[in-house]
Q: What sequence folds into this?
């Protein structure tokens, strides 16, 4: 009898939103599925995804990702997808309602953080975020530089 190893969440990464952690303070994260077309999945497997200025909006009790660009698949033939269309996120109703109330009450925003494969499915890690002020961004950069300098000094010894 062989035991199955538990896979860590996150699988193989397709794309990471590097600017999200720079401009936002991430308060909470959540995993969501995506409602995609076949050509979109093929294009994602080729790494043709851009997160620039994308965010999550809530309409009619559903969560939608707005502004995520998935390049057209070159071998698709006549059936091509719209690269900038809004895509529905697959979440439980309670999860959507909980985050929707937090966004409305506290003035927070929901931003995509990471896109990855998990058990042959494409998942999106989304984060409940608060925007950083300019001085907060500078403080984060200072802390990162100080940690890097300390690590260099420890390696030199």
A:
């Amino acid at each position: 009898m062989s035991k199955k190893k538990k896979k860590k969440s996150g699988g193989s990464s397709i794309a990471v939103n590097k600017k999200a952690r720079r401009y936002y303070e991430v308060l909470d994260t959540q995993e969501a599925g995506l409602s995609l077309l076949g050509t979109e999945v093929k294009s994602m497997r080729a790494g043709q995804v851009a997160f620039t200025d994308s965010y999550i909006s809530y309409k009619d009790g559903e969560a939608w990702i707005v502004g995520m660009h998935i390049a057209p698949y070159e071998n698709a033939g006549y059936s091509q997808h719209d690269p900038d269309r809004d895509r529905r996120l697959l979440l439980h109703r309670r999860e959507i309602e909980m985050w929707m109330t937090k966004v409305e009450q506290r003035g927070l925003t929901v931003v995509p953080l990471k896109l990855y494969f998990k058990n042959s499915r494409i998942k999106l890690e989304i984060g409940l975020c608060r925007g950083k002020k300019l001085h907060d961004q500078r403080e984060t950069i200072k802390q990162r530089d100080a940690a890097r300098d300390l690590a260099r000094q420890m390696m030199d010894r």
Summary: The longest helix spans residues 134-156.
